[in-house]
Amino acid sequence: MRSSTTIRLIEPADAAPIAAHRARDIEAFRRWEPARPADFLTPEGQAERIDRLLAGHRAGTVWPGVVLADDRVIGQVTVGGILPQPHLRRGSLGYWIAGVAQNQGHAGRAVGLALEVMTDELRLHRAEASTNLENLPSQRVLRRNGFSPYGVAHSAILLDGSWRDGLLWERILGD
Hints:
The protein is an alpha+beta fold. It has a domain at 5-125: Aminopeptidase (3-Layer(aba) Sandwich). Helix content is 32%, strand content 35%. The protein has a seven-stranded mixed sheet, with helices on both faces. The model has no long low-confidence stretch (mean pLDDT 92).
């Protein structure tokens, strides 16, 4: 039986499960994410990070969520860089799923739910995302959720010691 996927706003109690997933999956994510400080892999480091994310949420610049499978934290989905001004109204979507829960449809369902939050709760008009050029699984998730590629950001992110290009994605919300 397929487990259900939900998302909700991140909470301080999520620090320990997030740290456990990130520590276990550090090598798997090395190709896709920048280097992190050592405390990123600890519950204390994640607690500090969650405090910063929730401060950003209170300021209206970020919606930090966790991805749940049957009420267990298995990843994160975050809308960052929120620009709520009437003439902009956009946010940038990022997400990850723990290795133990990958290839089960959770990423696609979580992105779909985040798009609902962006449309209904945040009242945004435009969703943006970026992927490493080689990250085909993430690109499939975005395509399945109505995103289209619109450009390449050259030397956009330092990954595993090399500057990498990013593929830029967009989706107009409410269409």
